Amino acid sequence: MSAVAPAEATLVACAGLTVEHGSGDARVLALSDVWLAIGAGESLAVRGPSGSGKTTLLHAIGGLVAPTAGEVTWRGRRLGVLEDTAREGERRRVAIVFQGANLLPHLSAYENVAFALAARGAKGSDSPDPAGLLALVGLGGKLDSLPSELSGGESQRVAIARALAQAPELLLCDEPTGHLDADTGARVLDLIDVLQAEFGFAQVTATHDADVAARAARAVGLADGRVSGEERFS
Prior knowledge:
Layout: E1 2-3, E2 10-21, E3 28-39, E4 43-47, H1 54-61, E5 69-74, E6 77-78, H2 84-91, E7 94-97, H3 109-120, H4 130-136, H5 152-164, E8 170-174, H6 182-199, E9 202-207, H7 210-213, E10 218-223, E11 226-232
Parallel strand pairs: 1-3, 4-9, 4-10, 7-8, 8-9
Antiparallel strand pairs: 2-3, 2-5, 5-6, 10-11
């Protein structure tokens, strides 16, 4: 089944994407013949139960997992054949927010964001201020706080600020509210939506939650590693 982006220019596309893990008796088919196109600036949800292949799909789109068959293209360029430096450069335009914040525990909120900026190689006028990014997500007063001193929602906000430090064209969110209560999760999702409207990045959110999926303009279903359907919400 082909799931194609609407009128926006295609940012990233999967064509016959297949990903296998392991070999022999331990072989697991994580994705099978996935066709999917994501438009620049689009909001897309990938919905399915645990084990359906959602995380593998996000990792393949982000260039973290190599296809076993098929391909992923970024603005029409096949990721699998790019030079290493070019592929890394393309991947830096993709940021991932995981289910857990995955902050470096020995670094403050400010230092976690600054570390992401350094990893991106942003310098001088090209480098946003970590304090400014944290202020954007409502944590201007938590610059010196360690992850252990932050609530779950605050930690996830730092993770979002860290993602913004990568100046993404595409933000991949893997069950970003999975460890949060309903109210805190809703506030985190509201924040991501506001930032998407401000910065114009595309957003792909993997979720098992129908209510979270319905916040996107479009949702595709995954079942046993295959696209099982598509819904449009706006």
